[in-house]
Amino acid sequence: MPYGIDRKTAELPPGFSVIHSNRMENLRNIAVQWVLKHPLAPLENEVFIVQSNGMAQWLKLALAENDGCGISAAISFQLPARFLWETYRTLLGSEGIPQESPYEREPLKWRLMRLLQGVSNEKGFSSIARFLSDDPDSIKRYQLACRLSELYDQYQVYRADWLEDWALGRDQIRNAQRKPDPLPSDQRWQAELWRLIQSDVPTSKRNTSRSSLHRQFLKAARSLSERPRKLPRRVIIFGISTLPEQMLEAMHALSEHTQILFFVHNPCRYYWEDILEERSLPLVEQAPHVTDSERVEITHRESLHHDVNPLLASWGKQGRDYISLLHGYDRPEAYRKNFSEIELFDDFIEENKNATLLCRFSRRSWI
């Protein structure tokens, strides 16, 4: 029986399923066997969301192997941002949403290049004026436009609530608890520049930023009574190390009508979302909100650091946050019966006297 697959399981209905493993090979095997056991209709594309073309090629080869599907065809490999944009167009209507957003990084760069030329003398843009004061060849203006286009592109994905407030004239930012804080005076030009960008975009395309469309998409997805014909019946998100909450919200909304499968590369079988890297411990110890009675417990370094590999604590931040967000949407009891296992963790190294220090160090911390 293929690893992790229960052959007595019926077709998986629309839903949200998450498989964890510390080996990409295990994730690949179960993904291939799931596709083999639950084939879609002829001429219907299988949709994989991956983070690179290399990952797509690796999966294609596995699907084409004799012990896989025997052939790799009718498969659409997409990057997360492109898939999400096309899904917005499918659900909200392609007539009012262009194939390429005017707020995408590349077109936004040239729009900013033009806008920055005119804002230097305006009130509130003194810092930009100083930066561009000695720029005869417009090199600084181009570099700043590139940097700001990247920044606003990231805001659309990770800080959509900020952009929504700025568009409404509220110069504020929201913290992790969604509570608004005033935008620092030396940063208010960012909010004003976003309003200038929006006013410069043609009226018909003004509300097509990712942050604006995402809000419309969630509302439309939650009101669906059935799956639109152009929406895929199954989407497999494979091996991606981190995704923004915006993407997870969209996948969860789609799971009411589409089979959503997450194959997550998780380096540790145990709960590791609360571990801290060594350099963060003094900051926690000195936190101003901690009382003296609490400080004794909080500053117990073993309980905070858990004696883990420092690489996992320092390099795993993005993955840790991603897995933490994923847990908020995951309901294993709804799909556990469809799989023999949903946590496929292997021990890479057996404990023995001849193991090197690096091997023992890795085994203690990563499995």
Strand order of the largest sheet: 3-2-6-7-1-8
* Count of strand segments: 8
Q: In sequence order, what are the helices and strands, one letter per element? A: EHEHEHHHHHEEHHEHEHHHHHEH
Total helices: the number is: 16
Give the N-terminus to C-terminus distance in angstroms: 25 Å
Mean pLDDT comes to: 82
Query: What's the helical proportion of residues?
Result: 40-55%
Q: Nearest-angstrom radius of gyration?
A: 24 Å
Q: Quote the beta fraction.
A: 5-15%
Q: Extract low-pLDDT stretches.
A: 1-10, 279-302
Describe the structure concisely for a colleague.
By secondary structure, the protein is an alpha/beta fold.
Task: Describe this structure as you would to a colleague.
With about 375 residues, this protein is an alpha/beta fold. It is about 45% helix and about 10% strand. The protein has 16 helices and 8 strands. It has a 6-stranded parallel beta sheet, with helices on both faces. Strands 4-5 form a two-stranded antiparallel sheet. The two termini are about 25 Å apart. Mean pLDDT is about 80; it is low at about 1-10 and about 280-300.
Key descriptive features of the protein:
367 residues, six-stranded parallel sheet, two-stranded antiparallel ribbon, disordered N terminus
Topology diagram in text:
Blueprint lengths: L14 E7 L2 H14 L8 E4 L3 H12 L10 E4 L1 H13 L12 H15 L6 H6 L7 H20 L1 H8 L4 E3 L5 E3 L5 H13 L9 H13 L11 E5 L6 H10 L4 E7 L15 H5 L6 H7 L2 H5 L4 H6 L1 H13 L13 E2 L12 H10 L1
Parallel strand pairs: 1-7, 1-8, 2-3, 2-6, 6-7
Antiparallel strand pairs: 4-5
